[in-house]
From TrEMBL:
Name listed for the protein in its UniProt record: UDP-N-acetylglucosamine--dolichyl-phosphate N-acetylglucosaminephosphotransferase
The family this protein is said to belong to: Belongs to the glycosyltransferase 4 family.
Cofactors, names only: Mg(2+)
UniProt source species: Tieghemiomyces parasiticus
Top-level taxonomic group: Eukaryota
């Protein structure tokens, strides 16, 4: 064991021992483990980065003048330490049910469903990390990328079914005269959960391609989820307090490892997060949204990603050609990023009509020939759209702008959820 390992491990274990004696509060222990995991992630990433390059896990940082080779998929370190943290944490939320004397655990009172849901959520996250890493190694095709989160979410669906299995939705006021206040959508609720997992994972992966943007957006969403949870944990509604507490157990270590990863991934990036991280982040959000029963609020935190997905749809569904990479392009003369573009040579008539409409609202930049026929269009991503509007920007300014938009989106989400919602529900 190296001296550094001893220096780290001894006080960390001692601290945990002291804390578990001093308090029974799982949230305090969760916070402690999260901070430790964050620090460990922060230390470990630069220590192992070179081994990733040696193992062939690297990518070109395309928006730098010399396009350096950067270690790729370091999200696997963040995700693995996160999983270890949660594994270590498993006994703590259930400690109050452990018998004081060596005796048999009361099978009548122990919350097996809660434990089942917790383990199912862990299995779901672990599967997603595994599939995400497989994607980084084998560069899986898009149609399979869509299926991967569906498979990974099956344990979560089962856990949800066992824990309470609520499949009804509360309808907004305008629909109530026709459909009533509550509508049981049955099996469709499970389809919705699976689609939420597909959306959360892929939407982060496609708002990507410049230093810091994947981890930056995820950090803001995670902080928003935690802030929302904190509104409930001490509230009078005990069932709500309990599920939001569980959401916090999952989101606190996520905030910690993401902060550490972002530190190394922010401009100029020393490491790339990889698809592993994007899937891991998206699935963590889907998991907390489902077990915390706040998937609609969660989707409000995804406003930039929803916009980016809808805006991307013509390319994702191939109405407009979609190049392998759509991130903005560096202009070496100015050191600023400019919108990248795609040829319209093989665009469908519907695709061309969409491009013309977007151009009318100045949402894309179109290059035309002398006769005014569109030849190329800026790639349909939020990053390129911001550059079309704001003009060329340095890479770190563009990443900061996306993070600022995400913060603005969360402020709007809280306003809608806690102010305007009374008009709808
Ligand atoms: C998704 C996007 C793709 C975008 C890519 C960037 C869609 C349909 N796909 O593809 O348009 O170009 O993410 O991640 O929208 N890279 C950088 N700087 C960064 C981050 C990544 O140069 O800050 C480059 C590196 O070469 C890295 C590669 O992007 O190796 C990673 O791309 P990958 O995650 O494999 O792309 P996809 O997720 O398939
Ligand atoms: Mg990716």
């Amino acid at each position: 064991m190296s001296t550094t390992t001893v220096l780290w491990t001894a006080p960390a274990v001692l601290g945990l021992a002291v804390l578990t004696q001093a308090t029974n509060d799982p949230l305090a222990i969760s916070t402690y483990l999260a901070v430790l995991t964050g620090l460990l992630t922060w230390r470990l990433i630069p220590a192992v980065a070179d081994r990733f390059v040696a193992a062939g896990l690297s990518g070109k940082d395309v928006n730098k003048a010399h396009q350096p080779i950067i270690p790729e998929s370091l999200g696997i370190i963040a995700a693995t330490l996160y999983l270890i943290c949660l594994f270590l944490f498993i006994p703590f939320p259930f400690r109050q049910w452990f018998p004081a004397e060596p005796a048999v655990l009361s099978l009548r009172t122990f919350p097996f469903q809660r434990l089942g849901e917790f383990l199912a959520a862990l299995l779901c996250l672990q599967s997603m990390v595994f599939l995400g890493f497989a994607d980084d190694v084998f560069d899986i095709r898009w149609r399979y990328k869509l299926v991967m989160p569906t498979v990974a979410s099956i344990p979560l669906l089962m856990g949800y079914y066992l824990s309470d299995g609520i499949t009804y939705v509360v309808l907004p006021i305008p629909l109530r005269p026709i459909l009533g206040r509550i509508l049981d959508i049955g099996i469709l609720y499970y389809v919705y959960i699976a689609m939420l997992a597909i959306f959360c994972t892929n939407s982060i992966n496609i708002l990507a391609g410049i230093n810091g943007v994947e981890a930056g957006q995820s950090l803001v969403i995670a902080l928003s989820v935690a802030a929302n949870d904190l509104l409930y944990v001490n509230g009078p509604d005990r069932p709500a307090a309990e599920v939001h507490l569980f959401s916090l157990y999952f989101i606190l270590p996520f905030i910690a490892v993401t902060t550490a990863l972002l530190w190394h991934n922010w401009y100029p990036a020393r490491v790339f997060v990889g698809d592993t991280y994007c899937y891991f982040a998206g699935m963590t959000f889907a998991v907390v949204g489902i077990i915390g029963h706040f998937s609609k609020t969660l989707l409000l935190f995804f406003i930039p990603q929803i916009f980016n997905f809808i805006y991307s749809a013509p390319q994702l569904f191939r109405l407009v050609p979609c190049p392998r990479h759509r991130m903005p392009r560096l202009n070496p003369a100015t050191g600023r990023l400019e919108p990248s573009d795609a040829s319209l040579a093989t665009a469908t008539p519907t695709g061309l009509a969409v491009v013309r409409t977007l151009a009318r609202f100045r949402l894309v930049r179109v290059a035309t020939d002398d006769a005014g026929t569109p030849l190329r269009v800026s790639n349909l991503t939020l990053l390129n759209m911001l550059l079309v509007h704001c003009g060329p920007l340095p890479e770190n300014h563009l990443a900061a702008l996306v993070v600022a938009l995400q913060v603005f989106g969360s402020v709007a989400a809280f306003t809608v959820r806690y102010q305007l919602v009374t008009f709808l529900y």
